[in-house]
Amino acid sequence: TKAHDYTKYNSWATINDWAVSISSANANLISRQVIGNTYEGRPMHLLTVGKKTGSAKPAVFMDCGFHAREWITHAFCQWFVNEAVSTYGSDPEMTNLLDRMDFFVLPVFNIDGYEYTWTKDRMWRKTRSKNSGSSCIGTDPNRNFNAGWCTTGASSNPCSDTYCGSSPESEIESKNLANFIRTNKSIIKAYLTVHSYSQLLLFPYSYKYGLAADHSELLSVSQGAIAALRTLYGTRYTSGPGATTIYPAAGGSDDWAYDLGVKYSYTFELRDEGRYGFLLPESQIKPTCEETMLAVKYIASYVLNNL
Ligand SMILES: NCCCCC[C@@H](C[SeH])C(=O)O
Ligand SMILES: [Zn+2]
Ligand SMILES: [Zn+2]
Fold first, then answer.
1. What is the ipTM of this complex?
2. Residues lining ligand 3 (ion), CB within 5 A?
3. Cα distance between residue 163 and residue 176, in whole Å
4. 16 in Cβ contact with 45 (< 8 Å)
5. CA–CA distance, 10 with 115 (Å, rounded to integer)
6. Which of 4, 8, 250, 298 has its CA 20 to 30 A from that of 146?
7. What is the pLDDT of residues 206-246, one digit of tens each?
8. Ligand 3 centre and the CA of 159: distance in Å?
9. Which of 149, 193, 195 should be mutated for ligand 1, with most atoms under 8 A from CB?
10. Degrees (nearest 5) of the Cα angle 153, 157, 161?
């Protein structure tokens, strides 16, 4: 497999090897577990990043690669893990975060779809599961969670790119993630799901126009996060509830996590605003990841200070 490079888009085989090597090279800060397999049988590796204290710490759960074509997101999760272990001990904020919290990082949620974008169709979005009664493949995993499931901004047509699936958590990938979060919900204080593109920081709800109970707090934290992001290169983000800030969309993992009780639940839409879209050039991986680090650290620090 090709050598891993944080400033390039890496294939799943390379990411998989990277996960093994970075966790064994930083055994004091990273542990690795499989939370289940994908439809095509690939193991979903979850990295737990944080100082090992032997006791459960409050945690942030972050996933990347929900949608296969959103390659900058896979790159960000890899960047985050490396930045965390590389700046532990030197960056006071990151050191504090890793001493007192854990980050559950799922670098690639939709592995089957990601592989498919490398081999067959760069613009693929969905999972790669077979839909009974249809020749069309895949479900949109971000319409597949039990949160207003399939009521708005989703399609019940298996051939649609926003197909909600045959039922909530019909996708094994969704089931694996939901099971992990349900099992660990007492320690998971924040859920971050990283998508692209549009430069947005979204929070519940997307399945209805009604404001979340924690709307004002979620809004103010998001405003602080995008202000922090903007300090590096001036990149402008917009934040707000999904339904009014992007579009109504039911079945999202963020809405589901929020209704489960994970208060700080956010969806990132990374660079850009459409010039390159999903085909963001590799030259933008570093700046995109560096600025996004600031937003993620802002949110995590806020959560830690408001436990
Ligand atoms: N839970 C819905 C959050 C808003 C929509 C996010 C975008 C990411 Se590509 C989508 O899933 O269409
Ligand atoms: Zn997406
Ligand atoms: Zn998107």
1. 0.98
2. 195, 269
3. 19
4. yes
5. 11
6. 298
7. 999 999 999 999 999 999 999 999 999 999 999 999 999 99
8. 19
9. 195
10. 60
